[in-house]
Amino acid sequence: MSAAVDRGGAGRARRLVLLAHGTRMPGSVPLLEPIARDVAARLPGVEVDHGYVEFQSPSALEALQGGEDPVVVPVFLGSGYHVEKDLPAMVDEHGPARLTEHLGPHPALIGAVIDRLAGQLAEQGARWGDLDGIVLAAAGSRRAGPVREAGRAARALESRVGLPVRAAYLSGGGPTVSEAVAAWRAEGAQSIAVATYLLAEGRFSAALRSSGAEVLAPPIGHHAALAEVVVERYLRAA
């Protein structure tokens, strides 16, 4: 469903620029391009561009060129250095622009995490009731903000699925995902799932394969929730 866009006095909707991290992992499935297409379908008449902070092209600076006062949406689940430092600096270098919040932890994205875990359970012939607990695997950071956000996401997931959920991290401080699974195992848990609080396959998601959990859900990937949250961020700013 498309959204109404306030075009203001100039009669033109503000351009939208989506910026994501990027990956150097060979064979990775593109994610930002289909998100941009989904968003454009929901915002008819809005020019939607995208770029990457690292590793992939077009670069973030290239994507920002070509129009005044765009709305810039960071396609990141958590805050952290890129969101707090790199992107504001790039936007300042570009000139007038409106930088929105990043995406998480939005309720729609928690729903997407649940969808991916539910799909993996069905693929393995398992049920929610078979699980003793869930480890929510987040990217992690040495900054307090992203860790707090992952904790909020874990609590939201726990509230919605009715199972105990513990956040764990793939970088920064602990516990690591493997440590969280092992600790739960030591407490007597027999069946543990890892819900992946990441946007796409990459170095972090590959590391989860050795977590020791019985069920490993894939990252959010191409999911309608991403376009939903981007459109919400855009409309608030524009």
Can you characterise this structure?
A four-stranded parallel β-sheet has the order 2-1-3-4, sandwiched between helices. Helix 5 (144-161) links the parallel strand 5 and strand 6 (165-169). The protein has eight helices and eight strands; from the N terminus they run βαβαβαβαβαβαβαβα. With 238 residues, the chain is of the alpha/beta class.
SSE inventory with pairings:
Blueprint: E1 16-20, H1 32-42, E2 48-52, H2 60-64, E3 71-74, H3 81-94, E4 98-99, H4 107-123, E5 133-138, H5 144-161, E6 165-169, H6 177-186, E7 192-197, H7 203-207, E8 215-216, H8 224-237
Parallel strand pairs: 1-2, 1-3, 3-4, 5-6, 5-7, 7-8
Helix pairs in contact: 1-8, 4-5, 4-8
Task: Please sum up the structure shown.
This protein is of the alpha/beta class and 238 residues long. 39% of the residues lie in helices and 15% in strands.
Average pLDDT works out at 91
Uncertain segments of ≥5 residues (pLDDT<50)? none
The strands making up the biggest β-sheet line up spatially as 2-1-3-4
Global outline: elongated
Please estimate the helix content: 25-40%
- What is the subunit arrangement here? single chain
**How many beta-strand segments?**
8
What's the story with the biggest beta sheet? Answer: 4 strands, parallel
- SSE string: EHEHEHEHEHEHEHEH
Q: What does the radius of gyration come to?
A: 19 Å
Derived from helix and strand composition plus strand pairing, the structural class reads: alpha/beta
Q: Span between N and C termini?
A: 18 Å
Tell me the β content: 5-15%
Number of helices: 8
Question: Which terms would index this structure?
Answer:
single chain, 238 residues, alpha/beta, 4-stranded parallel beta sheet
